[in-house]
């Protein structure tokens, strides 16, 4: 366990009722990975047929396909990244006291 998430959320790991109990989460994670791999294998043939039907575009870039300036794409991606980083920082600066966390958890 890392102290990073507990420090950011304001929740002390010692106060957590299931501290150290990760078996259920691990089982669900493995089951989800196996399910996702199964879906990928089942859909692979159809995806392959679809991509062959669309044809080969070669080394196409987004600016070439959309007939837009590469600088427009770069600035849009830079703006999206900056917005995402800002929102992540803003969300991490609001620690939730454990008592509030527990109230929210009971209410839902």
Brief sketch in words of this structure:
The chain has five helices and no strands.
Task: Provide key terms for this protein.
2 domains, disordered N terminus, 108 residues, mainly alpha
Structure description:
The chain has 108 residues and is mostly helical. It folds into two domains: 13-56; 62-108. Helix content is 71%, strand content 0%. The chain is built from five helices and no strands. It has helices at 3-9, 23-54, 62-66, 70-92, 98-107. The longest helix has 32 residues, at 23-54. It is flat, with a radius of gyration of 22 Å. Residues 1-7 have low confidence and may be disordered.
Tell the overall outline: flat
The average pLDDT is: 78
Sheet/helix structural class: mainly alpha
Give the biggest beta sheet: none
Radius of gyration: 22 Å
Task: Provide the low-confidence segments as ranges.
Answer: 1-7
Number of strands: 0
Task: Write the H/E string, N to C.
Answer: HHHHH
Please, how many helices? 5
Spell out the blueprint of helices and strands.
Layout: H1 3-9, H2 23-54, H3 62-66, H4 70-92, H5 98-107
